[in-house]
Specification:
The chain is of the alpha/beta class. It contains 11 helices and 13 strands. α8 (192-204) runs parallel beside α10 (236-244) and α10 packs parallel to α11 (262-272). The relative contact order is 0.13.
Length: 284
């Protein structure tokens, strides 16, 4: 990361990535302020200069950012549920923006995120990707963890990556599983973890009759995805799900997927005898 004196604000959802990004920013000497979303952000953000903001408090958010002289924003972290605006008590800043907010909430995940970016940019903010601050989060091309994949496994990896990209074009999901040169699962609204549970169930039911770990989970960015706010991730739960599903490994798109809690991911993959590899995916 190139050091800068421009203040940075992190709008933090859940998970460990916001604190990892905050740590990287502080190590680079960048003035930092973290805004945690109530009910979503991890308490670990309290180790940094911070404040908590609830859904419906856009006015308060903008006042906090102005007080810290912040125009550069990182939007990062998990959001478990979309806010139910019928139950919120919006402040004046939110009430003024209600027509824009309503238009943002119409559409799929990608259009919502695009709307959020546009909403903030029209107010003079610059959106910065988490991976631009904590550059070690991003998987580079080549082996990531565990053993080396076999030739047949690499073929499954390529098939699954292509399937994942295809459903990504529909804004439907980011992941797929291939086994024996056949796509056996595609991610939808349930997410990667639940998809892996389906694969495990298929094995338990005898629908997948191959012995031993076989098949590959692949994950990539949607072609239309704005990686500044929505880069796909894998983490320890992904590895655990792959092992439970009886798969041989994970393939991720190089430079388009973040690895959360990398040290733990590497250890889990090594101990389980699976592989993780980052591959190039030709983009249309």
């Amino acid at each position: 990361m190139i050091a800068t004196d421009r203040p940075l604000a992190i709008i933090a959802g859940g998970g460990s990535v916001p604190t990892r990004v905050a740590t990287a920013a502080m190590e680079a000497g960048r003035p930092l302020f973290v805004v945690g979303i109530e009910g979503e952000a991890d308490p670990g953000i309290e180790g940094f200069p911070h404040a908590w903001v609830g859904w419906g408090s856009i006015g308060r958010l903008e006042r906090l950012l102005a007080a810290h002289g912040t125009k550069d924003l990182v939007l990062v972290g998990n959001i478990r549920l979309r806010p139910d605006f019928k139950r919120l008590k919006p402040d004046f800043g939110t009430i003024k923006a209600l027509p824009e907010i309503a238009s943002i909430l119409i559409g799929g995940d990608n259009s919502v995120l695009t709307g959020v970016i546009r909403f903030m940019e029209t107010r003079g903010y610059t959106i910065v990707g988490a991976h631009e601050i904590a550059t070690d989060l991003v998987a580079e091309l080549g082996p990531v963890a565990g053993r080396s994949p076999r030739e047949a496994e690499m073929e499954d990896a390529r098939i699954a990556l292509e399937a994942a990209r295809t459903i990504g074009e529909l804004d439907a999901g980011q992941a797929a599983v291939s086994s024996g040169k056949h796509v056996i699962a595609l991610e939808a609204a349930e997410g990667t973890d639940a998809m892996l549970e389906r694969v495990a169930s298929l094995k338990q039911q005898g629908r997948l009759r191959r012995d031993g770990p076989v098949g590959v989970l692949a994950k990539c960015a949607k072609p239309q995805q704005d990686l500044r706010v929505d880069m796909p991730t894998i983490g320890p739960r992904t590895v655990e799900g792959v092992v439970k599903a009886g798969l041989a490994g994970i393939a991720i798109e190089a430079r388009h997927v973040m690895i959360v809690d990398r040290d733990e991911v590497v250890k889990l993959a090594r101990d389980a005898g699976i592989f993780i590899v980052a591959l190039d995916l030709a983009r249309r």
